[in-house]
Amino acid sequence: RFVQLTPPGSACSIVMGTGVTQMAPGSQKGLQVVVQDVAAVREALVSRGVETTPVEVMPWGSFIFFSDPDGNTWSVQQIPSRDEFLGRRRPMGESRVLWEVGPDGVEVRTLRVRLGLDSGYMTRVLQSLQKHRLIKLEPDREDRRVRFVRLTRLGRAERQELDRRSDAVAWSFLEPLSPQQRTRLVSEMTELERLLGASLVTIAVEKPTTPDARWCIQQYFAELNARFEGGFDSARSISADSSELVAPAGALLIARLRGRPVGCGALKFHHRAPAELKRMWVVPDARGLGLGRRLLLELERLARRNGAGAVRLETNRTLKEAVALYRSAGYREVKAFNDEPYAHHWFAKRLATSSPVPPPSRDIRRGR
To answer: Which of 290, 157, 292 minimizes the C-alpha distance to 220?
Structure first.
């Protein structure tokens, strides 16, 4: 004889009986059953004389534990709904938005782009958080069409609680590991995060007058000024003004990670003559992801599509990583072809025309 237990709607069963398995009675540990109401199940078990633990509430569910007469151990879990993320009785989407607002606040549009949310859903989330007095919406002082979202005192306290509970969940995974295993896990997770981040980078043509484009160029100039011997003055350098970086004269590419600008690169076109590569820059915390090489490849594709048979550029000797990138990408050093005062190296590369030009990446088919 045997007894087969199949919870309603389940595709799995638990079978009990003689001759079913070679396992000794009491040797099965950690059998787990998922229920809708763990408190009601505990009450039913206790009423039948089963000794169970009190309900233990954890971020990933509520549990009770007991042993059957043979000594097998059981756990009963109630999985939290999506409306109870980390036990806060709030949808995960709202908690994520609350977290991303951060202690300093953020522009609503930036927040929406960063999280990849449509405007309708974002509006509903913000209205709910505002209703619970967790955030406040404020217009920008200079442009009242722009809205900022900031945390209230209650919102800051709730964010700290989410942080504490998230840390508790993370520690529950780390605690059973040895120090060496923890170090290895954290190291590999960090590398995984970087690689996944690289796959999320988008590159698109953008007008050089947008705030993000201007910010990238300003950061580029600031880094040159800090690294060059004697600093950098853009007025002395060969121009690549906004009017020169829009079609048909040229183009500017902006790289973004979760909506945040993380790099740029530009071209100046000269009909069938070689295109000039300008303004290659990657934000420091995104370096090492292969983003510079991706920008370079996209710029070469863009140059070919605009009729250029070659690309040329000049660079400073202090930018050793840039020099290494150009050489590894097939650029060869040539004689000086201009009088750029900050240049020590001049490079050129002939673009292949014998094979079909690769299609542009999905991200740059439509410029901004």
So the answer is: 292
Confidence of residue 366 (pLDDT cuts 50, 70, 90): very low
Tokens of 350: 């002939």
Q: How confident is the model at residue 333 (pLDDT cuts 50, 70, 90)?
A: very high
> How does strand 31-34 pair with strand 14-17?
unpaired
**pTM of the model as a whole:** 0.60
Q: Residues 136-143: what's their mean pLDDT?
A: 82
Range list of H helices, 1-149: 38-47, 92-101, 108-115, 119-131
Position 141, amino acid:
R
Q: Is the dihedral of CA 141, 147, 150, 155 positive or negative?
A: positive
Percent of the chain with pLDDT over 90: 42
Sign of CA dihedral 273, 341, 279, 210: negative
Lookup result for tokens 């806060």: 88
**Pairwise CA distance, residues 289 & 271, whole Å:** 33
Residue 363 has pLDDT above 50, yes or no: no
Please check whether residue 5 is in contact with residue 14, taking contact to mean a CB–CB distance below 8 angstroms.
yes
Name the H helices within the chain. Answer: 38-47, 92-101, 108-115, 119-131, 153-174, 179-199, 211-227, 291-305, 320-328
Beta bridge partners of 223: none
